[in-house]
Fold each of these.
Amino acid sequence: MKAIAVQNLTKRFGSFTAVDDISFEVDKGEIFGFLGANGAGKTTAMRMLCGLSFPTSGHAQVAGFDLSRESEKIKQSIGYMSQKFSLYEDLTIRENVRFFGGIYGLSNAEIKSQAEVLARNLQLEDKVDTLVKSLPLGWKQKLSFSVAMIHRPQIVFLDEPTGGVDPITRRDFWTMIYDAAHQGTTVFVTTHYMDEAEYCNRVSIMVDGRIDALGSPDELKKEYSSKDMEGVFLQLARKAKRGD
Amino acid sequence: MKAVSVNAVSKSFKQEKSAIEALKEISFDVNRGELFGLIGPDGAGKTTLFRILTTLMLADKGSAEVDGFDVVSQFKEIRKRIGYMPGRFSLYQDLTVEENLAFFATLFNTSIEENYELVKDIYVQIEKFKTRKAGALSGGMKQKLALSCALIHKPSVLFLDEPTTGVDTVSRKEFWELLRNLQKQNITILVSTPYMDEASLCDRVALIQEGKILDIDSPAGITHKFGKPLWAVRSRDMYNVMIQLRQMDEVASCYPFGQEHHLVFKNEDARAIVGARLKEAGHTDVSFARIEAGIEDCFMDLMKAEKV
């Protein structure tokens, strides 16, 4: 079974087709880069896959559940980290873990053990009872990711997780992504950093609501005769007809 | 006279128990007509510095001048001659594109017609939407409108706070071309960005992290100072190669950079040993190539030096 299987997914807002008949599959444990220029339709597509927005037409299975009939089950099986920091700043690390763990239906014992694992992995053991707002920015980002993974979801959706982050933290963050994928979690990630596209197993590039390219970074570089992913992206994004 | 001159500026923000030092005795100058980049991650202090220079906030210590005027005693003079595009979109969402531009022109006793030449290149790209409300514009168009509004009174110094954050690479490239053209019209531009690759597009840059300036120089000057042989490592199994390299004593640092890892040896003679050890571990296709350091290599190196 695929982690994500999308067939002819379309979303229209009035006369505007935000997502235009896209089809693709994502394997289990894969790091899948979901790229596109601003306004290409990435966020709309991602919101549908998370069960937050209904498609106008088409089908999709996410974590084995049908998008139109079982969106609540999808929500329980996925983790989501938004572009904007969305943990509670005026709660401590432990309280945030307790809150989000509770929302995902973890038992008290599970929450307790997960909080310990999380603090150990992030080397924040002495900080579990400090307010999240007093943490340095780089740590907040890593903490958000760990909280999105608190219920051990099958798939985690990351919406520009590294925007504005310092270069060392950005790399630490990708190490965490790799580790999660090695443990079998499927990672679906958007980014504006083209060097990060190279870290994905496969990448899709959206242009005007369509997926115009899909493949491993090496395949795409060969196909578009480019030395790096930035070159591939520029060739495709410049074809866009609709303004962002 | 410098366009901008900052002398030992400090600023802290009090929290319940502690204080956050947003700027720690920052000093630098920006020359007239220069395109000067303030490069650093979120939380480095870029916005605080911009607010002090645009006279919207007072420094705790130190002094600063913009266009020859003191930011405290002569703030009114400064406000007349600078343009400021904040990081957050702050035009009037319920006014149209044209109304916004006319409003900002009027504030400075001028008109769109009078300074049209200056904004023409940018404004033509959104002019066909001039009757649309600003709130209904896409991100890229909002950005162009905000830049037009910051320029319409022909400022001598332009402050752009993270104009390209969250913007895709195509639009980023276009935006920097616009800045280059503006520079030709004798406007000094101070621009901040978290994207290290944009540093090379500036005349000079200040690398900033946690309220401190790590270095100030031309982009080439900064990369020239890296001072250590840097190697690009490639292999099929990039992830495991990185993990092994990081565990080796001979390796000073190893960071992923897209399709390669950037590696510094503690001792150059160790390359053969390291290569052999990787081969032993089954990585038979590892290649090493000498490369020049980029701004991001330098930034990480300086960050680590700060921490020691």
Amino acid sequence: MTSKPMTAVTPVPAEKAPTRFWSAFSGKLVNTLIYLFLSLWALIVIFPMVWVVVTSFKTDQEIFFSPWLPPAQLMFDNFVRAWTKANIGLYLFNSLVVILPSIFFTLLFSAMAGYVLARFTFPGNRVIFYAFLGGMLFPVMLALVPLYFLLLSMKIIDSHFGLILVYIAYSLPFTVFFMTGFFKTLPGELLEAAIIDGANHYQLFFNIVLPLSKNGLVSMGIFNFLGMWNQYILPLVLLTTATKYVLSQGLAFLQHQQRYQSDWSGLFAAIVIVMVPTLIVYIIFQNQIQRGLTVGALKG
Amino acid sequence: MYKHKYRVIIPFLAPAIILYLVFVIYPYARSMYNSLTSWKGVSTNQPFVGLYNYQRMLNDELFWNALSHNIQYLIFIPLTTIALSLFLAFMINQQVRFSKFFRVTYFFPQVISIISIGVLWSYVYHPTIGILTSLLQFLRLEWFFQLLGFEGIPVWIGDPRTVRPAIGAVVVWQSVGFYMVLFLAAMEAIPQSFYEAAIIDGANRWHQFWNITLPLLWDTMQTALVFAGLGAFDMFAMTRVMVVSGSTTGRPADVLATYLYEQAFDVSRFGYATAIAVSLFLMVLLLSVFTMRITRREAVEY
């Protein structure tokens, strides 16, 4: 009976101590769990890549019979075969031949159009802007068939030149949209001062506006580069000769061939040749690349 | 100020507009018309058939088969990806050590081309040379798959029951890093004082997440949902590369994009393929508008 008033008094100190202990303990526990989860996901991300790199140095027998063991001997020959016989070197070259001019002209044409749309008032300005904006709504899938026949009738099907034109055209909507927004933020006084100093519009654009827009251009360059690097369906439809294939297409081609002539070690080496350079470039430029890629989410 | 402005406007706009009209607008407009013809590509004659292609589509079992797979992806991929990336972003945002390392690592798959990832994973899943099956054997997990009704560890890509989960998992694996960076950027924009005030009020991290972080992330979430939904309606590259030529019986991996590609470029039914493409476009458009609508809320200003 006497315990009743006792419990009414004691709770205050009695509850406090375990709470502090408990919160310190659970804080530690939560922290440990956080690291555990973060590390687990990191492992899930990294492990398949490490496995491919390790496997690319093995012989076919080792790949088949001991997938978990490291190679007994580093088979650099796999890379030589992938580069020359499997044509990875050629595909890489083709990719760059297509992508570099595509990026250059995408940035140039988009900057020119964006500059005019941002800084000049003229009838039709809004219509043109929204026409570009609307282009982002449509999936490439929808244009595929007419695009193929259009390039066929223009006699630029199965050519890098045709693919470059198509890459530029499909990169324009978002890049024009982005650059227009970017040029609106440039200080107008600076540009007017240059005009008063006697610069014509071309000098103004190339000597002052473009250098000032370096950040925006770099973001768009990275965004478009990765988009084109990943592009698969357009080259698949528009390039038909195997020696003209770009990297993504070539790798898929090798993968399909693999069913008939098993050269696993060569294929793994090919994946590594495609994967590792981009990872290295990414590690060096990670901040710009993360920014450049996620900037695409703005368009939603 | 700007005299002779049309001498600038016209040449500056011309290259972009011409390329855009010829290679983007024209093909899209042409597609809308082509879907009303029974064009086979070989002849220049394109017999006008009205809505016949659409009618045929509604009676085409393979169309519904492909569409149902897109819908399955649509239900599972965005939810899994967003939940996982939100969770990881929130944990990284707890001022953990090595946060830079995690951030960079999680983004890795995003910079490797989808084709490389597809090829890589098709070997991870490979029943003899792959590591997944042998890992599961090592962990003695056969009983788990037997519980699910498999004879043992499934052959992943080769089994019609597991091929879509297997492909879907790769898409999640690949895109989590992207959404995580997106969410992390949004989380870092939330003023620290909000959390400090909540801590004084006795809120634990769980409460902070539900009552501060999540409501302020709503706009980003909306964007992420639309993006992931669009991805679930594509799946072309991943499917093409992981399922070699998609000729397994019953077409368990078909999606609309691979089916329409096959109809156009393998069997030359261009009119029919285009009708599928037009309906794919309309579905994507409706889905985006719908997602924006149902997730619209009072924006929380800060």
Amino acid sequence: MINWLVRNSFQRLVLLVIVSIMAHAVVHLAPGEPSEVDPTNPRMKAEDVARIRAAFHLDDPIHLQYVRWLRDLASGDLKSFKDGQPVVEKIGQRFWNSLPLFLVATLLIWTLSFPTGIHAALRRGSVFDRSATLTAYALISIPGFCLAYLFIMFMVNVVGAPVIGMRTFGTEQASTMLQFMDRLWHLTLPALMLALGGIAVLSRYVRAQMLEVVGQDYVRTAIAKGLDRDRVIYGHALRNALLPFITMFGLMLPGLVGGSVIFEQIFAWPGIGRLGYEAILARDFPVILTINFIAAVVTLAGTFISDLLYAWADPRIRLQ
Amino acid sequence: MSDMPSANAELSAATSSSPARLAWARLQRDRLAMAGIAVLALLGLAALFGWLATSASSPWAVASLDPATVRLTDKLAAPMSAASALVSESERPFLGVYLMGTDELGRDVFARMLQGAPVSLLIGFVAVGIALVVGVLVGALAGYFAERTVLGLSIDTVLMRLTDAMLCFPTFFLILTVVALLPASIYNIMVVIGLTSWMSTARFVRAEVLSLRNRDFVAAARALGLGPARIIWAHVLPNTMSPVLVTATIGVATAILTESALSFLGFGVQPPDATWGNILADGKVFIFDAPWLFFIPGFAILAVVLAFNLVGEGLREALDPRLRHLREAAPAAIRTVRASGRKRTAMADGSSTAGQ
């Protein structure tokens, strides 16, 4: 067990280095440069470009730039190209804004897709199953922003849900409770939009997984013993059907960051995805690279926890 | 003589039960997948017609379907409205009617949709083609030469760690970064989408090849003196093709969606090239004033992507004998339980009995 932990952590560390080197290479070798953000600006002269390149050490060999980035990131000295603010602080602030969004979206995905999938599998071919299937397909087939616009039109007119920002302006003096409720209300639509795609995909997996498990011999045995139906479904079938989803949890994390780029843009949510988009527009390499790095760390940590949970949940698996 | 017809029937029965034909027969029973195929056939025709009729270099270009014709007098005309008298004879739309309305420059949306159809499809197919080539190559090499070592590391380890590393990236963020840094071009978008979506193909091709390479038919091929390249290409890979086909079909759908998301953020295919994604992204501003600019491309994308997804899922079920078995056997057991012995104790079912 200890052996596995050490070896696995080491492997993940190596993977993280590979990821960061790849990201660094891609960003630095691509033709776009911070000095070319505004190529039509007549005041930009050749010496200005040279000064910008020198200031950001863009003329150094690429491996030196990588080492500098890593060193600055570790020591917290990494500065944004755009405004000279410390990158870690900048991202940290935005990350705390995005976190509730990610948490609520994850919660929605996992709580809504399981009942839907299980119900659809147990009543295969029923009206519910077919409409759930078709809805799921429609949800993964429509461009995310298109669906978001339709939802905005509907929700604003019918429910009056807020669609801009994280809070109502001018509520700073209000009671904590009211502010909290206001935050939550603002979270509704963005989190739902971020979750919908995941719900569609995951509920299909749950359904397929349930269908596979209820055909197994041990389920037939349990039925033959005359056990209660709920007992068979939830005690025997579901428990075994759940196992693969432990792995999926870790792998779904980078998708949240990617999806947040679009949805934070739509809902003017000052989160990490929007920061990433702004950084891309400004060719702010340190911020782009660090967001990528954080996403990779989160993913690797997620799959690590998944592996541990898997071993804990399935006694057939030994970590060695 | 009297034996002949029955012998023929047997023969045709034998030929008609090839795996591909069986899969096709199964697919035909899947109504959703067949509807998807019908939509895709229509789309194919539309794309072909659009390519011939709207591209400037085509000898069959139809002047009334020129997507670039600007008619400022007829801007934001509703669908099915006739062209006004102010439009000159040479600039009149197809049949004199704006079938799908016009945009803010008075360009015919119908013509632009026709122009966009082949471009959107091309993005999907080229991106998936690249992803398949890379994925199959990486998977086959990692699986077949798993033990060979390079610099002390096995090929399998090297390639699979690379795949794992790629899976750690938030894909859309990576695509956006690269597309934004590269010069705006439709080819860059295809290549970048392709190079960021090969990982799942590589993983399952590797798994398949690992299990196939120790089979007798591969040993036989090796005994015949065939080289590894030929064994992989002619004997191993054909056996991994059905999941590849499924992934490819769904991959086209994903690529079309990715392109539209890029267009939304302003990094998609740039004008004058029209794709359904950028027509939709440009139309979002007019969602209240000219809803057709938003809804027509939106629902066109929905229909096409849905069709690709349904066909992909249909293929998955038709090509996988294991799933078919499950589909027939599984739920009956639970159903019998539901129908017959409902021996629930009052405690286990307390809430629902209380309700009754």
